[in-house]
Design a protein that fits this description.
Elements: H1 2-17, H2 24-28, H3 39-52, E1 56-63, E2 69-75, H4 78-81, H5 84-94, E3 109-115, H6 123-136, H7 141-146, E4 150-155, H8 160-173, H9 213-225, E5 229-236, E6 242-243, E7 248-251, H10 257-277, E8 281-282, E9 288-289, H11 297-300, E10 305-312, E11 320-322, E12 328-330, H12 331-351, H13 353-369, E13 377-380, H14 386-399, E14 404-405, E15 410-416, E16 421-427, E17 432-435, H15 441-448, H16 467-471, E18 475-478, E19 504-507, H17 512-523, E20 529-531, E21 535-537, E22 540-542, E23 547-550, H18 560-572, E24 577-579, E25 595-597, E26 603-607, H19 613-627, E27 632-635, E28 649-652, H20 666-671, E29 675-679, H21 700-718, H22 725-729, E30 737-743, E31 756-761, E32 774-779, E33 785-787, H23 792-797, E34 801-809, E35 812-817, H24 830-840
Parallel strand pairs: 3-4, 3-5, 5-10, 6-8, 7-9, 26-27, 26-28, 28-29, 29-35
Antiparallel strand pairs: 1-2, 2-4, 11-12, 13-17, 13-18, 14-17, 15-16, 15-18, 19-23, 19-24, 20-23, 20-25, 21-22, 30-31, 30-32, 30-33, 32-34, 34-35
């Protein structure tokens, strides 16, 4: 009897392997392309296939801000599937990131397919279901052959929150039948659109910076596998044909010949299938491989062949849309194109599996033994700003970039980021050493290089991002190898204790963590002030900006004052010091009028039509995630119904405000004590307007001087050939360059900073110095550019211009921020600037 049961079990297992699994259409009840599929139904289908097919598994690797699951499917042959963990360990051993006993699997390529990073580029999630079916279907003999030497990983939707925002809106607006006219409302998404995630961040720009929870959770599992090939699926404008690799220039110089070559091979295979169908496509245009935070470049800098696929359509396409050529582009067409390139990528990876693994191995052997970049070591001087130091360590740890701590002092030479020159310096015990001789060598070099070498100045995104500038750390790039120091030790936080005879508690003001501490104590009911000037007590130096909480101002808290301050300090690990007197050795006594009371901001933030959704999201994220301070968000269409007297701070993100604010007496509100923080294009609302001092030029003489320069440019432009029109235009363009500003660090807007600031400038808009007001951050000369590309003509125009300024009006103030210090939340050093604008400016 036992033998019969055993035989039945074997027969059942064999029959289940070849059982007919449901197609997406059979499961959903409609053909792919007839409608958009809700995210939960996509997950249901993936779960069903994983349950039905023994050599497919599904894992949840995270959850979005709106509680949707982030999942990853694993597919391979039954033989490989039983060895998945050993394949993974062998691959990490090959990369030098795991000391494992596993060897072999040299002919198994790991292919990761990422779909729908931009929510309203929604076709790729639909395509992912068909790709899963094609790989799971045992009757698809070609796919089963590929799986013999590949492990395929499918992320059906990187950005579920954004996708559901788009899909839910579209289902409400689509006609019955759908209307292909681009004028129909089903083709015109309202603000903010579905592209970004919950906090309106572009997740395809966050791979390196990891500001969003989706990115952080994805990278955890990505680093557990390190795929050999990574394809990222997108959509572009309705009228564009399909794009696939090879990519456009500029390629980063550290991208290998093999990475270029396999891109081309995959592109040629894609072209073969597209040619058979007569589908239009293009390559080598627009989408370059430089900026390190994309879904194609980040994997490339980690040894993979990373690629972007772009299907025409996006949120404008819906189920079907008429193109400018009169063709109808359908969702069914778009799905077919993405399915084709998905399978083509797996096919080429399978046919080249041994070479793919060999070159992956070579990539890391080269990285560890002979890195090819210009700089072999990076030294970060030990900072007295512990928050910056720890923030950097956290980023490095997440990327698994190795670093050590110097345990001896010695003289070395290298490129000084601070003054852009090569010089000798003293490396001291406690400094951080990042050696390029490590598995993550290429990623390290790309993130820390002072300036990327551009083979072409026309790029798709910013051209400068170097971490020492983003964090404002004293750093050096060395062309020589520096021997490693000792392993870093986790610094122990010494808890703050209640001091019964404390006259006051003093907190530092050097980072966004300090801003968060102030946010927390204010919300707990503690009255706080800040020192407008440096002071000393009993020989202890306290810089300007220090946050002071005196017992005298907080009598109403009775006996909980000390406990409240200390509890928050320990929760946030902030080094708060107790002082027993308000009498200073130098500076102003703690009861002086120069120690300014911080009136808690009551913040109104405008979002909605007319504002940049991404810029709005950066500010919204800053309040809710960085400092956890309450903010009231108002839709732009409702702003004129708001009683501004309920607020003392109004924030205007990048946007157009002329019509939006027309019914508000904003000038009167400011004069009565209100504060406006205006960023980027929001400044245009005030430019040249009567009653405000903001203008493009400081004076008529400056205007004439700059326009005379532009006349020469205009003459040369008139003679430029049509074929060079793009090159002509970039002479007045800045593609994300880093500029060194002169900073008035005696002003509240710049407290906590040295006399300079590195700003990431992404636009060419120019403003002159404010007359009789405060020019806090300025570009003084043509040598301000320290990294990245800026056109030759805009560089001539920028000197003597304003970047950060404050204009007083009656009892209130306007904070002008030409550049956005919160850009993509990765410019760490800018967050304190925004904290200054929020809490310190206007408190005098």
């Amino acid at each position: 009897m036992k033998k019969i049961y055993t035989l039945l079990a074997i027969l059942f297992t064999v029959s289940s392997l070849f059982a007919q699994i449901p197609t997406p259409a059979e499961f959903l009840g409609y053909e792919l392309g007839e409608r958009f599929t809700p995210h939960y139904r996509v997950i249901d289908y993936f779960e069903l296939i994983a349950e039905e097919v023994p050599n497919i598994s599904l894992t949840q690797y995270g959850e979005t801000n709106e509680y949707r699951p982030l999942v990853l499917a694993f597919i391979s042959s039954p033989e490989n599937f039983d060895q998945l963990e050993n394949i993974r360990k062998a691959n990490l051993k090959r990369a030098g990131l795991l000391e494992a006993s596993e060897n072999g699997f040299e002919d198994i390529a790991i292919v990761w397919l990422s779909y729908n990073v931009h929510g309203n580029e929604s076709v790729s999630t639909e395509a992912s279901m068909q790709v899963l079916y094609d790989l799971a279907n045992k009757n698809n003999t070609q796919a089963q052959e590929w799986l013999k030497n590949t492990v395929v990983m499918i992320d059906p939707c990187i950005n579920p929150d954004g996708r559901e925002r788009y899909v839910n809106w579209y289902q409400q607006k689509v006609g019955a039948p759908n209307n292909p006219s681009p004028d129909a409302w089903e083709h015109n998404e309202p603000w903010p659109g579905g592209r970004a995630n919950h906090y309106l961040f572009d997740l395809n720009r966050d791979w390196a910076w990891l500001t969003q929870k989706e990115s952080r959770k994805r990278l955890e599992i990505y680093n557990q596998w390190l795929p050999h090939v990574h394809a990222d699926f997108h959509e572009q404008g309705v009228n564009s044909p399909y794009y696939f690799a090879p990519a456009a220039e500029p390629y980063h110089k550290l991208i290998t010949d093999w990475q270029r070559d396999l891109q081309t091979q995959i592109g040629e295979n894609n072209a073969r299938y597209f040619d058979e169908e007569g589908w239009l496509y293009f390559t080598r245009e627009r989408f370059d491989l430089l900026y390190p935070s994309y879904g194609d470049t980040y994997p490339t800098y980690n040894g993979a062949i990373g690629m972007t696929y772009e299907q025409g359509g996006s949120g404008r396409a819906g189920l079907a849309v008429l193109t400018e050529e009169g063709d109808t582009l359908t969702l069914t067409d778009r799905i077919a194109h993405h399915v084709t390139t998905s399978l083509s990528t797996i096919e080429v990876s399978s046919k080249n599996a041994s070479r793919v693994v060999e070159e992956f191995d070579n990539f890391f052997v080269q990285a560890v033994n002979n890195p090819t970049g210009k700089y072999k070591s990076f030294v970060i001087k030990k900072s007295d700003n512990e928050d910056k130091w720890q923030a950097l360590q956290k980023l490095l740890n997440t990327h698994e970039i190795e670093y050590s701590i110097s345990n001896i002092s010695r003289n070395v030479s290298g490129f000084n980021y601070q003054n852009s020159s090569n010089e000798s310096f003293r490396m001291e015990s406690g400094d951080m050493i990042l050696s390029a001789y490590q598995p993550k060598s290429v990623l390290l070099q790309v993130l820390f290089e002072p300036e990327a070498e551009l083979s072409d100045s026309i790029t798709y995104d910013i051209t400068a991002w170097s971490i020492p500038y983003a964090y404002d750390l004293q750093a050096y790039a060395l062309s020589a190898r520096v021997s490693d120091g000792q392993a870093p030790e986790q610094s122990e936080f010494e808890p703050v204790a209640v001091q019964d005879n404390a006259y006051a508690y003093v907190a530092p003001w050097k980072s966004v963590e300090d801003v968060k501490f102030l946010s927390k104590v204010i919300q707990a009911g503690v009255r706080a002030r800040y020192a407008g000037n440096e002071f000393t007590i009993n020989g202890q130096r306290f810089p300007a900006g220090s946050i002071i909480m005196t017992r005298a101002n907080n009598e109403d808290m009775d006996e909980v004052f000390d406990e409240t301050v200390v509890e928050i300090a320990n929760e946030l690990k902030q080094n708060v010091l107790a002082v027993t007197t308000g009498f200073v050795g130098s500076g102003y006594d703690l009861g002086s009028g120069e120690v300014h009371y911080i009136e808690p901001p009551k913040v109104l933030l405008i979002g909605g039509e007319g504002t940049s959704s991404l810029a709005f999201g950066e500010i919204w994220y800053f309040f809710e995630q960085d400092i956890e301070y309450p903010v009231t968000v108002v839709d732009s269409k409702d702003i004129n119904d708001v009683d501004l007297s309920d607020y003392n701070t109004l924030i205007l993100p990048d946007g157009r405000y002329d019509d939006m604010l027309s019914d508000l007496d904003l000038e009167a509100w400011i004069s009565q004590g209100g504060k406006v923080i205006a960023l980027e294009d929001a400044l245009e609302y005030f430019e040249g307007k009567e009653g405000y001092s903001l203008s493009e030029y400081s004076s008529e003489q400056e205007k004439q001087r700059i326009e005379s320069r532009q006349d020469v440019v205009a003459e040369s432009n008139r003679l430029a050939s049509y074929g060079q029109r793009e090159r002509r235009d970039i002479s007045n363009y800045i593609s994300g360059g880093i500029f060194k500003l002169q900073l008035d660090n005696t002003h509240p807007l710049a407290l906590g900073y040295p006399s300079y600031y590195y700003t990431l400038k992404r636009g060419s808009k120019r403003y002159g110095y404010l007359e009789n007001d405060w020019n806090v951050g300025t570009i003084r000369d043509q040598n301000a550019l320290v990294s990245g590309f800026a056109g030759s003509e805009i560089l001539k125009k920028l000197p003597e211009s304003l970047v950060f300024g404050v204009e007083g009006k009656g009892n209130g103030e306007l904070v002008y921020m030409v550049d956005n210090p919160l850009f993509r939340a990765f410019w760490y050093n800018g967050k304190l600037m925004f904290g200054n604008a929020l809490f310190l400016v206007g408190q005098n």
